[in-house]
């Protein structure tokens, strides 16, 4: 597939890395906010959206679950990206020349060991790729950036140290979304189904709604709740399950779920990323 895939952040951001890895044939379109990413696809300025939903270290991405059901877009794929953090500096800089490192506060927190062992001051930047851009523009060898190798390539920076993150399994999960749904089975591996729902106002409704997945042997890999419209009594649930809606056991489980819900919306059906099991 050719065309454009939109992501949030500056060129070289980890979302850009996800686009590069998952859809290398497509042109990546940087956007200022998640809302701008969604709007770019809705308006036809981009064909696909790359949206981060959760990180193995820091949990779900704030606000993204509120945006997905209202986006009008459909999940057609997922991508798991290893977050490798690198120390980037202007050309010709030696590690011993660096006195400070700039990045998003989350990345600074993920490299405490390296920063402490090298006595580097932490400078909080707006984001990772933006910090790399600033380091390149300022040309000060004493200030480096923590970012992806892709950011180093884009802004012409040297990699002084690779993969300096404290946790070697830090991974971000992204959802790839389009204007049109794709419910076809794709690939030879397992499929995933994602949906949101609200339970009816009856006793033990959530417990009863979940019973259909247990009795039909459907594995639910994620179930999260969040308030709707700031109300403490209006709760929506976001769920990922293994399987395709046409599978007999999945169909039975979803039928039972619908009986106990006031609203249920399918967000997407897509192949499971092979790295999901790693």
Automatic annotation (TrEMBL):
PANTHER family listed in its UniProt record: PREPHENATE DEHYDRATASE P PROTEIN (PTHR21022), PREPHENATE DEHYDRATASE-RELATED (PTHR21022:SF19)
Keywords on record: Amino-acid biosynthesis, Aromatic amino acid biosynthesis, Lyase, Phenylalanine biosynthesis
Pfam hit, one: PDT
Keyword Hydrolase: no
Protein name per UniProt: prephenate dehydratase
ACT domain boundaries: 194-271
Catalyses which reaction(s): prephenate + H(+) = 3-phenylpyruvate + CO2 + H2O
Taxonomic source organism: Rhodobacter flavimaris
Pathway(s) per entry: Amino-acid biosynthesis; L-phenylalanine biosynthesis; phenylpyruvate from prephenate: step 1/1
GO molecular function term, any single one: prephenate dehydratase activity
Residues annotated as domain Prephenate dehydratase: 4-179
Superkingdom of origin: Bacteria
Top EC class, one word: lyase
Extent of the signal sequence: none
This enzyme's EC code(s): 4.2.1.51
